């Protein structure tokens, strides 16, 4: 049974019970007084009705429990294959590691998860710091990422599209801004995307972008961020190798554009107060060059 | 409302003893609270154990000696404790006084092996979760011994004061004895947990 | 006091001697003056204080709710910073649960239970005084920390590791954990008092099947407190230990476990919600009988349902952890047990409906709140049944759907009956009636305001809005409903405001009530309003579950209690046969001093473990002062 149907079933059954209870209450309140009030006979017949209602309650909740149980099974029985993607939640962004039998083909990305449509994608959920919760409302229910434990979740998209998700477990200051996007693609598109992501970062031709690269590796940026193919190998911030290809930055905070990248780098603490990226002092020239460089990392 | 006298209670005693005493029930309720506390620490102990690859996580099992000595001392203390309780029931002031002094020692002496129990664990509270829970169990139980010890001392002083010869005081002595039995009995599962479970 | 000749005898009182009654009054009274106010052990004075303080916390918590609603009214609003918001919802939740809902129910019991069982004071009156001061200290601790901008900011259930030593910076979480300790100590103290009062201080003849239902509900609640609170004591203490001295309970890299916290918290936290709800069941049962003019239908099933709820309450905690990664199929067991709660809940509802059916409803304000309760609680219960289903919960967990569920059951299920109960018992507590007209306005505004505020939250939750977010982006479809919710919250607040105004005004100017303005059947109405310090001139003798209806105009009473000391009747647990005339302690300043000593110790121990050792000494001294006999008549035996 699908989740949607289960929800409708519960709402319908509970709705009917509610209406019945309310109807009895309204009738009890409105009816003119019964002359037979409190006589042993009324007590007895009320006793019978109340018992019947209790029996009815038992039947209804048994039915609901059993349907819930079957829905659990049909949702859970899909977890067959080993995980192919590791999701790591951290304050306050998502890191995705695409595993591969060939370690050279494995790679990392952030905040935007691509999956092929029509197949089950098995995720392994881990947390670096505190508990987070992975939740894509339109694809599947949530599952917590718990430090010291490993959880799993299966994603399955039938239709291509972009699905928004958001961390659901309170995880501190910027819990509100810990969103992610799931991009479900046709298998061909997905394969192309994988191919592109596996490549190292594009080498900037010259001019601003090349200058920006220099700024990036010489400033503290490189201590926190990785850009594969360069000297930048920090791991406490998102992998930026293909940051230009993502549609949002800052875990769903801003649409990706030159302007927003510049704004982010110029003052991350105002845009997302308390997040773990500090304000790195830059001249406006450096900022412009960095922005050009980063937005060309597609 | 108008009143109609239906019952005359002037013949009732001025103080309830045994199950007619309020403090008896109050002590019982507090024992229930603390018993639940002990049960939870035991549950946490087994929970952590079920998660650990080895148990103890990173330590040899604790030395048996101090814990076992303490256990024997506590069990031994039950005898004078019951006697004090019986004397209190009989309102035998002289014996109760002596008994309370004896119980002061019987309560204080176990603190000596208890002092050695902590090092006998071979682990510090902040080393790992095993250390944390075992220290917590010992610490929690020690506060119980100390609380009852202080209570016993205060009672002993009271029994040497002018307030002594009073049914209420004897009742207090009985409740204190009851509580000491609880402290001793609660220790037994804790002892089993700390000292024998790691050896299973 | 020594002039034996001057002490009147019980027979004088029985003969209607006014001097004798004055003497009795003097024995039991609380003199005026600050010292006396700090020393009183009268359960009515303490109960009233307790209730007023808890309602003050409701008001303050409500103001926090309004400020959250202001921030959430518009997407990306900047009225309140992220850090402030996190403090606010944490304090709102912790305050409402630990400083309002639980204490207010216990406070009602502190006031009412001794009157309802027909005795002159609660068992362990000094412990009762101590409990109030400790509660007050805990409340001040939390609110002062909010005023200083260092309030806890990790939610009312403080999940580790966010609350642990590594991520919970500063002393914020310690303040939270210690506030818990304060409220637990006070709740446990009251629970012990209630158990012993109900077991041993019932009026002669009040056998088990004649105990008023409110008293039953408080008895079950008290047992829930006794069995559930040790879990939160353990968890909050171990959290402080982890933070202060480096124990590793919750550190996975040293053999600790993050989910252990959740198990311990919810093993307490679920019973906690029934600790809040069961007293409301008792209140509804008490009031519904008065306002339908017949005994409540199904006394025995109602008692059994309360006990069943209490027992089941300990088997449900995992339903708060359905997405934490425990085995799914194992979790289904907790689906079943959670749903099973619908059986006792339904039983209660059906019994009340039957009472309404056969009764002659009198539409006074308390009955209006009962009707509001029935409507609202059944909806809240239904959403409870929905979130109890594992697959549905994976969607709605930690969303506004759950926020809607718990406000429906907390406010609809407990606060509505509570406000009705205030209208109902206010005349007893103050001697004056509240306004029926303002009462209707309050009900109308609270009821409509409530549903307009909280019903849309179900939809927001289904639309994917998570809880505990200080803001949300404008492109999501949540803005409209949020604005609507926030505006409706103003209606709700207006309703509460009218209620508060009515209460304050009536306290001074309400029409005089007389002993039994509602013509109610239970013992608290057998004495004057407000009751004299000794509650009853003579302890009533009980012969039915509705004594004031059964006995006509004259109440059978017992004589023989001394007038020169505070004497109560101790009776047997089952049949309530008198066993002794027991003295209960007189006023004393020591509980207040002991509470101060305890407060210093508890607050000090946030900063250094040595505070526990040094702080124990003043506590021991004050406790000794508390229990040391003072050669009063109360010490005679
Ligand atoms: C007064 C408080 C109160 C009460 C009474 C309840 C009552 C119930 N609650 Fe609720 N609950 C809370 C307070 C309360 N709850 C709080 C505070 C939280 C959130 C904590 C947090 O996360 O911050 C919570 C969260 C919560 C969750 C976790 C949700 C999540 O976090 O994802 C669940 C899951 O099972 C749940 C279930 C239930 C159930 C099954 C009942 C049942 O008792 C309801 C039973 C009643 C009825 C069903 C209605 C009457 C019955 C009939 C008319 C008979 C006919 C009925 C049928 C046939 C169905 N509650
Ligand atoms: C009994 C408990 C109780 C009560 C009564 C309430 C009452 C209210 N609650 Fe609360 N709530 C909780 C228990 C309770 N809540 C809990 C446990 C949480 C979870 C916390 C957490 O996640 O950790 C929560 C969380 C919570 C949230 C979610 C926050 C989030 O997740 O980000 C919201 C949001 O709207 C909310 C709103 C309200 C509102 C509008 C009221 C209203 O009913 C309040 C109405 C009352 C008043 C408004 C006071 C009277 C007003 C006046 C006298 C007017 C005077 C005012 C001025 C002059 C300004 N509550
Ligand atoms: Cu991560 Cu909330
Ligand atoms: Cu629950």
TrEMBL record, chain A:
Ranges for the Cytochrome c domain?
207-298
Q: Where is the Cytochrome oxidase subunit II copper A binding domain?
A: 80-196
Q: Main localisation, per the record?
A: membrane
| InterPro entries listed in its UniProt record | CcO_II, CcO_II-like_C, Copper_CuA, Cupredoxin, CuRO_CcO_Caa3_II, Cyt_c-like_dom, Cyt_c-like_dom_sf, Cyt_c_oxidase_su2
Bilayer disposition of the protein: Multi-pass membrane protein
**Segments traversing the membrane:** 6-30, 50-71
Q: Which GO terms describe its molecular function?
A: oxidoreductase activity
Q: Which CDD domains match?
A: CuRO_CcO_Caa3_II
What function is annotated for this protein? Subunits I and II form the functional core of the enzyme complex. Electrons originating in cytochrome c are transferred via heme a and Cu(A) to the binuclear center formed by heme a3 and Cu(B).
According to its UniProt record, which protein family does this protein belong to? Belongs to the cytochrome c oxidase subunit 2 family.
Q: What is this protein called?
A: Cytochrome aa3 subunit 2
UniProtKB/TrEMBL annotation, chain B:
Question: Which stretches make up the Heme-copper oxidase subunit III family profile domain?
Answer: 1-199
Intracellular or extracellular location(s): Cell membrane
Which keywords label this protein? Cell membrane, Membrane, Oxidoreductase, Plasmid, Transmembrane, Transmembrane helix
SUPFAM superfamilies recorded: Cytochrome c oxidase subunit III-like (SSF81452)
Transmembrane region positions? 21-48, 64-84, 96-113, 133-158, 178-197
What topology in the membrane does the UniProt record assign? Multi-pass membrane protein
Report the sequence similarity comment from the record: Belongs to the cytochrome c oxidase subunit 3 family.
Q: Which PANTHER family match?
A: CYTOCHROME BO(3) UBIQUINOL OXIDASE SUBUNIT 3, CYTOCHROME C OXIDASE SUBUNIT III
Name-wise, this protein is: Cytochrome-c oxidase subunit 3 protein
What is the species listed in this Swiss-Prot or TrEMBL entry?
Rhizobium phaseoli
TrEMBL record, chain C:
Residues crossing the lipid bilayer are: 50-74, 94-117, 129-148, 175-199, 211-234, 273-292, 299-320, 332-355, 367-388, 400-426, 438-459, 479-501, 613-629
Give one Pfam family, short name only.
COX1
What is the E.C. number? 7.1.1.9
Q: Report the subcellular localization.
A: Cell membrane; Membrane
Catalytic reaction annotation? 4 Fe(II)-[cytochrome c] + O2 + 8 H(+)(in) = 4 Fe(III)-[cytochrome c] + 2 H2O + 4 H(+)(out)
What's its top-level EC category?
Answer: translocase
Q: Which domain of life is it from?
A: Bacteria
**Cytochrome oxidase subunit I profile domain residues:** 22-543
The pathway this protein participates in, as annotated, is: Energy metabolism; oxidative phosphorylation
User: What keywords appear on the UniProt entry?
Assistant: Cell membrane, Copper, Electron transport, Heme, Iron, Membrane, Metal-binding, Oxidoreductase, Plasmid, Respiratory chain, Translocase, Transmembrane, Transmembrane helix, Transport
Among its keywords, does the record have Ribosomal protein? no
InterPro entries referenced in this protein's UniProt entry, alphabetically: Cyt_c_oxase-like_su1_dom, Cyt_c_oxase-like_su1_sf, Cyt_C_Oxase_1, Cyt_c_Oxase_su1_BS, Cyt_c_oxidase_su1_bac
As one GO molecular function, the record gives: oxidoreductase activity
Topological relation to the membrane, as annotated = Multi-pass membrane protein
State the family named in the UniProt similarity comment for this chain: Belongs to the heme-copper respiratory oxidase family.
Quote the function comment for this protein.
Answer: Cytochrome c oxidase is the component of the respiratory chain that catalyzes the reduction of oxygen to water. Subunits 1-3 form the functional core of the enzyme complex. CO I is the catalytic subunit of the enzyme. Electrons originating in cytochrome c are transferred via the copper A center of subunit 2 and heme A of subunit 1 to the bimetallic center formed by heme A3 and copper B.
Name used for this protein in its record: Cytochrome c oxidase subunit 1
């Amino acid at each position: 049974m699908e989740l949607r149907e289960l929800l409708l079933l519960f709402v319908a059954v509970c709705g009917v019970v509610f209406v019945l209870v309310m109807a009895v209450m309204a009738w009890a309140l409105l009816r003119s007084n019964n002359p037979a009030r409190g006589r042993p006979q009324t007590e007895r017949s009320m006793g019978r009705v109340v018992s019947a209602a209790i029996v009815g309650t038992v039947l209804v909740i048994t039915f609901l429990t059993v349907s819930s149980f079957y829905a659990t099974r049909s949702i859970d029985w899909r977890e067959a294959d080993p995980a192919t993607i590791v999701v790591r939640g951290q304050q306050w962004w998502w890191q995705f590691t695409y595993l591969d039998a060939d370690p050279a083909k494995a790679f990392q990305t952030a905040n935007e998860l691509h999956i092929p449509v029509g197949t089950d994608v098995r995720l392994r959920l881990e947390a670096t710091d505190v508990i987070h919760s992975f939740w894509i409302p339109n694809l599947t229910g949530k599952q917590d990422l718990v430090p010291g434990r490993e959880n799993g979740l299966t994603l399955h998209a039938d239709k291509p599209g972009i699905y928004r998700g958001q961390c659901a477990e309170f995880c501190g200051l910027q819990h509100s801004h810990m969103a992610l996007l799931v991009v479900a693609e046709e298998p061909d598109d997905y394969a192309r995307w994988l191919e592109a992501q596996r490549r190292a970062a594009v080498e900037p031709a010259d001019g601003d972008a090349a200058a920006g690269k220099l700024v990036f590796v010489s400033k503290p940026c490189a201590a926190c961020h990785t850009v594969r193919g360069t000297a930048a190998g920090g791991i406490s911030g998102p992998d930026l190798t293909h940051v230009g290809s993502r549609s949002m930055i800052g875990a769903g905070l801003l649409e990706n554009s030159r302007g927003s990248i510049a704004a982010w780098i110029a003052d991350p603490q105002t845009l997302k107060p308390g997040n773990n990226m500090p304000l790195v002092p830059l001249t406006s020239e450096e900022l412009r060059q960095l922005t050009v460089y980063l937005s060309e990392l597609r | 409302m108008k009143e109609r006298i239906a019952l005359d209670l002037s013949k009732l005693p001025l103080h309830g003893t045994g199950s007619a005493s309020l403090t008896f029930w109050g002590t019982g309720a507090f024992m229930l609270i603390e018993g639940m506390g002990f049960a939870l620490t035991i549950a946490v102990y087994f929970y952590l154990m079920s998660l650990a690859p080895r148990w103890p996580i990173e330590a040899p099992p604790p030395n048996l000696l101090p814990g076992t000595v303490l256990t024997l001392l506590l069990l031994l203390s039950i005898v004078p404790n019951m006697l004090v309780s019986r004397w209190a029931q009989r309102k035998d002031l002289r014996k109760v006084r002596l008994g309370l002094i004896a119980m002061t020692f019987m309560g204080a002496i176990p603190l000596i092996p208890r002092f050695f129990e902590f090092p006998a664990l071979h682990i510090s509270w902040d080393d790992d979760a095993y250390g944390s829970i075992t220290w917590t169990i010992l610490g929690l139980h020690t506060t119980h011994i100390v609380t009852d010890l202080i209570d016993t001392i205060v009672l002993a002083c009271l029994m040497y004061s002018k307030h002594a010869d009073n049914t209420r005081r004897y009742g207090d002595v009985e409740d204190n004895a009851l509580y000491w039995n609880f402290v001793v009995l609660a220790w037994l599962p804790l002892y089993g947990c700390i000292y024998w479970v790691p050896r299973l | 006091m020594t002039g034996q000749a001057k002490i009147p005898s019980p027979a004088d009182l029985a003969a209607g001697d006014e001097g004798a009654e004055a003497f009795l009054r003097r024995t039991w009274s609380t003199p005026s003056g600050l010292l006396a106010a700090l020393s009183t052990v009268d359960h009515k004075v303490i109960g009233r204080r307790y209730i007023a303080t808890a309602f003050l916390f409701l008001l303050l918590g409500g103001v926090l709710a309004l400020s959250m609603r202001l921030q959430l009214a518009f997407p990306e609003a900047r009225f309140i910073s992220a850090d402030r918001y996190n403090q606010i919802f944490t304090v709102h939740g912790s305050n409402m649960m630990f400083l309002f809902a639980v204490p207010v129910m216990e406070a009602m019991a502190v006031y009412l239970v001794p009157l309802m069982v027909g005795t002159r004071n609660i068992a362990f009156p000094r412990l009762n005084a101590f409990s109030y001061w400790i509660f007050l200290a805990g409340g001040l601790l939390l609110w002062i920390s909010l005023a200083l901008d260092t309030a806890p900011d990790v939610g009312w259930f403080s999940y580790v590791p966010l609350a642990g030593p590594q991520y919970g910076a500063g002393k914020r979480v310690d303040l939270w954990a210690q506030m818990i300790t304060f409220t637990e100590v006070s709740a446990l103290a009251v629970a012990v008092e209630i158990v012993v009062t109900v077991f041993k201080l019932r009026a002669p003849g009040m056998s088990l099947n004649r105990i008023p239902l409110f008293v039953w509900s408080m008895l079950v609640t008290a047992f829930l407190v006794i069995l559930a609170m040790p879990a939160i004591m353990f968890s909050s203490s171990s959290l402080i230990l982890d933070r202060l001295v480096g124990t590793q309970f919750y550190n996975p890299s040293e053999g600790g476990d993050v989910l252990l916290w959740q198990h311990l918290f919810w093993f307490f936290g679920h019973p906690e919600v029934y600790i809040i709800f069961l007293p409301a069941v008792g209140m509804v049962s008490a009031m519904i009988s008065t306002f339908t003019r017949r005994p409540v239908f199904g006394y025995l099933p109602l008692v059994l349902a309360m006990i069943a709820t209490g027992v089941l309450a300990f088997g449900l905690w995992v339903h708060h952890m359905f997405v934490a990664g425990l085995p799914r199929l194992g979790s289904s067991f907790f689906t079943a047990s959670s749903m099973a709660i619908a059986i006792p809940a339904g039983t209660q509802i059906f019994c009340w409906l039957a009472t309404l059916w056969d009764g002659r409803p009198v539409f006074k304000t308390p009955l209006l709140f009962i009707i509001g309760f029935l409507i609202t609680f059944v909806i809240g219960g239904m959403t409870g049944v929905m979130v109890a289903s594992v697959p549905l919960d994976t969607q709605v967990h930690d969303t506004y759907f759950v926020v809607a569920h718990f406000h429906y059951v907390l406010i609809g299920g407990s606060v509505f009956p509570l406000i009705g109960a205030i209208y109902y018992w206010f005349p007893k507590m103050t001697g004056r009636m509240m306004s029926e007209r303002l009462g209707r306005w309050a009900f109308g505004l609270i009821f409509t305001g409530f549903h307009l505020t909280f019903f849309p939250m179900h939809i927001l939750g289904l639309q994917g809005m998570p809880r505990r977010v200080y803001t949300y982006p404008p492109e999501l479809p949540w803005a409209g409903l949020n604005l609507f919710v926030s505006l409706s919250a103003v209606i709700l607040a207006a309703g509460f405001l009218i209620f508060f105004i009515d209460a304050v005004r009536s306290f001074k100017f309400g029409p005089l009530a007389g002993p039994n303005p509602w013509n109610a059947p239970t013992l608290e109405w057998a004495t004057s309003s407000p009751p004299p310090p000794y509650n009853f001139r003579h302890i009533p003798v009980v012969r039915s579950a509705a004594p004031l209806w059964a006995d006509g105009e004259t109440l059978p009473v017992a004589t023989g209690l001394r007038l020169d000391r505070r004497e109560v009747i101790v009776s047997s647990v089952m049949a309530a046969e008198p066993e002794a005339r027991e003295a209960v302690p007189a006023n004393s300043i020591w509980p207040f001093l002991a509470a101060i000593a305890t407060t210093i110790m508890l607050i000090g121990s946030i900063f250094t473990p040595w505070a526990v050792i040094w702080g124990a000494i003043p506590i021991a001294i004050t406790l000794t002062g508390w229990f040391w006999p003072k050669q009063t008549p109360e010490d005679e035996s």
